[in-house]
Amino acid sequence: MSQPHPRRGLVLVVTAAVFFGINAGVTRIPIEAGLPVATYTTIRVTFAWLVFFAIAVAFDRSALRRPRGRDFLLVLALGVVGVAFVQWTYNIAIVRLPIGVALLLEYLAPVLVVLWARFVRHERVHPRVWPAIALALVGLALVGQVWGGLELDGIGVLVALTAAVCFAAYFLIGEELTATSAEPLSALQTVVWSFGIGAIVMNVLGGWEGTSALGTTASMLGRLDHLTVPAWLAMTSVVVTGTVVPFFLYLASLRDLSSAKASVIAMLEPVVAVIVGWVWFAESLSPVQTAGVAAVIGGIVLAQTARHTPDDELPPTL
């Protein structure tokens, strides 16, 4: 197994989070053009798999080899839970809840990852990870302004919490496959098979209704509402730069970072989404939200300071 390079892992996760955050804005274009959310998710997962498959055929056909034994079961779980369900549940949550609340609940995932690593895997976790998570979660709460007299939909909350579990599973299973397995899968092999399974799931659950909306001309919305693009072009951007690139980068980073650290750094995604909303959609960014952005970044930096840790600084395993 190659030697981990934490700085490389950090760059990969941050880049993935930026792509995902920008995609939050691009996503609005095909959906506002009339594409149903379930169909949007089906198209996103299916065509992302086709891209991954084409890359494997062109550059690394070994990635097409079916994982065996326990690895196949893990890939199956990753495809169902970490690919299909994480997107499907989140898309439902943002329909039933304010997006800030949905994001906050989904980004409880890093807490779940660290709890799993500490109490199920019995891994030593540096004490600084806990205040890092707390600071980042407080920052997300400030960004989402979750105290604003909200009457939350019970089903929406349940689905958002399910999204958090699925997102945590994505990091944990991905780490198991690409880093800690006796014969680790490559990132490309992992995404080819997990997205293929996810595509099957979404084609059964989501369907293809309303795809005619992709044939229309769509407004770019917000400050760019005077410009138009073909809706299919915006959807292509969602598939390539909003799905293929960041999902691959997240999995690739798990060779260099633990799932606990990677999931904390991924909290940068909703911060980027808020900035996109401010710059692109003229959504106001209050002083409180600005403080929240700073808190999330502070939590990420604090998590990274725990990267090199002498054994005697770590708490004992259970």
TrEMBL record:
- Give the main location: membrane
Q: Name one Pfam family in it.
A: EamA
The way it spans or sits in the membrane comes to: Multi-pass membrane protein
Q: Name one GO cellular component term.
A: membrane
EamA domain location: 8-143, 155-302
Q: Which UniProt keywords apply?
A: Membrane, Transmembrane, Transmembrane helix
Q: Which residues cross the membrane?
A: 38-59, 71-90, 96-117, 129-148, 154-173, 185-208, 228-252, 264-282
Q: Where in the cell is it found?
A: Membrane
Superkingdom in the source lineage: Bacteria
Q: What PANTHER family does UniProt report for this protein, alphabetically? A: EAMA DOMAIN-CONTAINING PROTEIN (PTHR32322:SF2), INNER MEMBRANE TRANSPORTER (PTHR32322)
* Membership in a protein family: Belongs to the EamA transporter family.
Q: What is this protein called?
A: EamA family transporter
Q: What organism is the protein native to? A: Aeromicrobium senzhongii
